[in-house]
Amino acid sequence: MNLRIRKALPEDSTLIYDLIRKLAAYEKLSDAVTTSVEELQKNIFDRNFAKVLIAEEHGQPVGFALYFYNFSTFVGKPGIYLEDLFIEPEHRGKGYGKALLRELATIAKTENCGRMEWSVLDWNTPSIEFYKKLGAKPMEEWTVFRLDQDAVAALANEKIDIKSAES
């Protein structure tokens, strides 16, 4: 096999940024990318908020998976949340995406995680079918909610009027 999967290193920050930009273009979300190489370097490698696996073919990067740990109170165990999975278009269909997911499953198993989760855009039929073939199930009864940075700031600064039990 010509594929090697390795843990990303701090010197991969520019590569990770470039792959994120390519993923955003594929997802038609290029305008949503507001990060920088420096911010990724700080938050992934210095602060350890996320981890990255790099897929290489003959030593050349062809894709990545960015993930972090979450926690399930119901299962009582950590889980892996896959934030991004991307394979360069010319390298798709070779099994590299599945190999990255297998590596993540191996990490999850080793770490005794209760599950792996991720989101997929509802129009991305090829990815949805791919994930279903792996045994993944859509969580159709759940809706994802998000506060963007402005909404987080507004909520954090909001004065809350707590009502007493007598009210």
Offer a concise description of the structure:
The chain has 167 residues and is of the alpha+beta class.
Detailed description of the structure:
The protein is of the alpha+beta class. It has a single domain, classed as Aminopeptidase. The chain is built from five helices and five strands, in the order E-H-H-E-E-E-H-E-H-H. It has helices at 13-26, 37-46, 96-110, 125-133, 149-157, and strands spanning 3-7, 51-57, 60-72, 77-87, 116-118. It has a five-stranded mixed sheet with strand order 1-2-3-4-5, sandwiched between helices. Helix 1 crosses helix 2 (37-46). The radius of gyration is 18 Å and the shape is globular. The N and C termini lie far apart (69 Å). The mean pLDDT is 94.
What key phrases describe this protein's structure?
167 residues; alpha+beta; Aminopeptidase; five-stranded mixed β-sheet
Indicate the topology:
Layout (H helix, E strand, L loop, with lengths): L2 E5 L5 H14 L10 H10 L4 E7 L2 E13 L4 E11 L8 H15 L5 E3 L6 H9 L15 H9 L10
Parallel strand pairs: 4-5
Antiparallel strand pairs: 1-2, 2-3, 3-4
CATH topology: Aminopeptidase
Percent in helix: 25-40%
Tell me the CATH superfamily.
Gcn5-related N-acetyltransferase (GNAT)
Coarse shape: globular
CATH class: Alpha Beta
The biggest sheet, with number of strands, parallel, antiparallel or mixed sense and barrel status, is:
5 strands, mixed
Average pLDDT value? Answer: 94
What is the CATH architecture annotation? 3-Layer(aba) Sandwich
> How many H/I helical runs?
5
Give me the strand/helix succession: EHHEEEHEHH
The poorly predicted ranges are none
> Beta-strand percentage?
15-25%
| Overall tally of domains | 1
Distance between the termini: 69 Å
Largest sheet: spatial strand order: 1-2-3-4-5
The beta-strand count equals 5
Structural class from helices and strands? alpha+beta
**Regarding quaternary structure, how should these chains be classified?**
single chain
For the CA atoms, what is the radius of gyration?
A: 18 Å
